[in-house]
Amino acid sequence: MRALAASSRRALAPTALQRLQPRRQASRAMPPPATATAGGAPQQPATPAARPSERQQHAAYQAAFFNEQHVKELRASITPDVEARLARVAASIPGLSAETRVLDAGAGEGALIPHLQARGVRDVLAVDVSPAMLAALQRRAGQPSSLGNDACVRTWLGDVADLPGYQGPFDVAIFNAVFGNLLDAHATLASTCFVLRPGSYVVISHPLGRPWHESLRAKQPQLVPNELPQREALELLIHDLPLQLVSLADEPDFYMALLQVPKGYAHPAAPLRLAGNVTTGFGRGSKQLGVPTANLPPAPLAEQLAQLPAGVYFGWAQLNADVSWPEADRQVHPMVMNIGRRPTFGDAQPELSVEAHIMHKYSQDFYGQPLRLLVLGFIRPEMRFSGLQELLARINADVGVARSQLGTPRWQPYREQLAAEAPPSA
């Protein structure tokens, strides 16, 4: 790709190659008004926006930078060699077909989309913060169908981190020539996982390679605040996310990391057994949220918990109550569990807690009773939410994920396994 920026504009704008990357990266950030659009049609917020957050300010900068002039320069700068590397990105994604739903995060003017279509993909949601970029993309791809279920190329103006859940689920999410422009790569990946199916892929790519990207980052740190991670940094970035590194091509002129949401959300340490006597918690599960939890003391579980980053898990639970309890109370039930320090509540000295919400209505309280948990899947990292309503909505979503996954044949044998390991009832 050739540098098209005139020397007189160099302080303001990067080269044409530089513009390719930022545009895609710009799609990660959202303009301060948080104007989300579907099919390119803007929807104005009902009330004035509060003071822009750091992420919104970053998005606004990116959105303003990538204007119509940059669209033209970007299009002119994509050489046959760059096209070949974009084709390589598409060719390296497993399982693409006419049934695949793709999220193109930071799509820019859609340079990667023809190569996805060449592999049979028909259903693409292109996300970007730049109206000029998405307008050019839609002109190139054609107007979307007026029928919401038709497979076609659609656009959504805004930050991928703010993409509504109803837009998913997707089979592939692609960050092509945009990852370095993200203000918070970890948070973006975490939110993206919410709209991906189990077994889906995340692609982080750049057709010009990491050395070129780092050169640009040195010249334009505000535009490109983050690196394209090398293997060790990438593994650290995703260590507490429901993602696994499948492959990494880190070549002088090509970069592509392929990540996968594990099938069934399986955690690498699964099955992992936790057991202890139920202790009192903070009273928030049932009193404030209406989601009662059984707490296990974390200290005796230190060895097992060392294998589990803070976050939300699912699996099976069994209360080892005596025979005086109803049989239903003594059976194995699905559970969703949080390990962490409850950042949303802002405790001054947060202590580590292990809290399991068991999907069964017990006949009585069971403080002090022995409880066994079999941990199987990992849904998401622990996160700070803006308030109790947002937290409760996410908890309910977590419960839904856990219930649906535990209802599949993959995890049913572990239910019988936990039951078979039960000690004799008194």
Automatic annotation (TrEMBL):
Record pathway: Cofactor biosynthesis; FMN biosynthesis; FMN from riboflavin (ATP route): step 1/1
Coiled coil: none
Region span, Disordered: 1-58
GO molecular function: ATP binding; riboflavin kinase activity
Swiss-Prot/TrEMBL GO biological process terms: FMN biosynthetic process; riboflavin biosynthetic process
A Pfam family hit: Flavokinase
Keyword terms, alphabetized: ATP-binding, Flavoprotein, FMN, Kinase, Nucleotide-binding, Transferase
All copies of domain Riboflavin kinase, residue ranges: 267-407
Top-level enzyme category: transferase
EC number(s) reported in the record: 2.7.1.26
Claim: Transferase is one of the keywords in the record: yes
Top-level taxon: Eukaryota
InterPro entries assigned: Riboflavin_kinase, Riboflavin_kinase_bac/euk, Riboflavin_kinase_dom_sf, SAM-dependent_MTases_sf
Keyword match Kinase: yes
SUPFAM superfamilies: Riboflavin kinase-like, S-adenosyl-L-methionine-dependent methyltransferases
Residue stretches of biased makeup (Low complexity): 1-13, 35-51
Protein name: riboflavin kinase
UniProt source species: Micractinium conductrix
Top-level taxonomy: Eukaryota, Viridiplantae, Chlorophyta, core chlorophytes, Trebouxiophyceae
